[in-house]
Design goal:
The complex is a heterodimer. Chain A has one domain: Transcription Regulator spoIIAA. Chain A is about 40% helix and about 30% strand. Chain A contains 4 helices and 6 strands, in the order ββαββαβαβα. In chain A, strands 1, 2, 3, 4, 5 and 6 form a 6-stranded mixed sheet that branches. In chain A, helix 1 runs parallel beside helix 2. Chain B is an alpha+beta fold. Chain B has one domain: Heat Shock Protein 90 (2-Layer Sandwich). Helices cover about 40% and strands about 20% of the residues of chain B. Chain B contains 3 helices and 4 strands. Chain B has a 4-stranded antiparallel sheet with strand order 1-2-3-4, with helices on one face. In chain B, helix 1 packs antiparallel against helix 2. Classes of the chains: A alpha/beta, B alpha+beta.
């Protein structure tokens, strides 16, 4: 399955919305989208993962790297997760406790 | 369901989704629940990624389903690489129905640990 990534902006936030599967074949697209959003400068980044049907640790590493980069510049990475395989991965990896998780974009950017 | 099935794919990341689908289909046919099927797909993806990153030209996912403890085995030509510790940690954390070991690379479908 291909990965499609939509991007949009809200005041103070860059929103990245991937749909599909994130693995070694597609993680580069996510990394590019994260880099482009972080390159905008003074903005926080929200990644809406509700359309992701599968993600393995390659995607997780990309998100952790982005979180590290953003926090280092005083910004936030917010993940929108609504159950499913992504939630399971965050849970079993223990990473979910170190990232900001929300159930909707509205909640993340409020 | 009896017998063995195998999937041969090139060592190219674009085929990871095929490997996951194969593993998920086997798990579904065996009647495993949705959570377990997700875990098995994740385990296969993690292990296949390690093999692809090691430069494997071809991967084989073998499903042995004729035994009381069916399993998935990932193989490649040559000596498989060591599994990175972070991958091992993740696979160990899955626990329950899915377990993996270093040599050979086996995922038990149903709870037992091969060693």
């Amino acid at each position: 399955m291909q990965l499609q990534i939509d991007r949009s902006d809200q005041p103070g936030w860059a929103i990245i919305s991937p749909s599909g599967e994130i693995d070694l074949a597609t993680v580069g697209q996510l990394e590019d989208a994260l880099a482009a959003s972080m390159g905008k400068g003074d903005t926080d980044v929200a990644v809406d993962l509700t359309g992701v049907t599968f993600m393995d640790s390659t995607g997780l590493r990309a998100l952790l790297a982005a979180n590290l980069s953003l926090s280092g510049s005083g910004h936030r990475l917010a993940l929108i997760v609504a159950g499913g395989p992504v939630d399971r991965l965050l849970d079993i990896s223990g990473v979910g406790q170190t990232l900001e998780l929300f159930q909707s974009v509205e909640a993340a950017t409020a | 369901m009896t017998g063995s099935l195998s999937l041969h794919i090139a060592g190219d990341p674009v085929h990871l989704t095929t490997a996951r689908s194969f593993a998920g289909s086997i798990a579904r046919v065996l009647g495993l629940d949705e959570q377990t099927r997700q875990d098995i797909r994740l385990a296969v993806s993690e292990l296949a990624t390690v093999l692809i990153r090691s430069g494997a030209a071809e991967l084989r996912v073998l499903a042995e389903v004729e035994t009381e403890m069916p399993l998935l085995r990932l193989e490649t030509d040559g000596t498989p690489p060591s599994i990175p510790w972070e991958t091992s940690e993740l696979l160990a954390a899955i626990g329950g129905a899915v377990w993996s070991i270093d040599q050979p690379w086996v995922i038990r479908l149903g709870g037992a640990v091969d060693s």
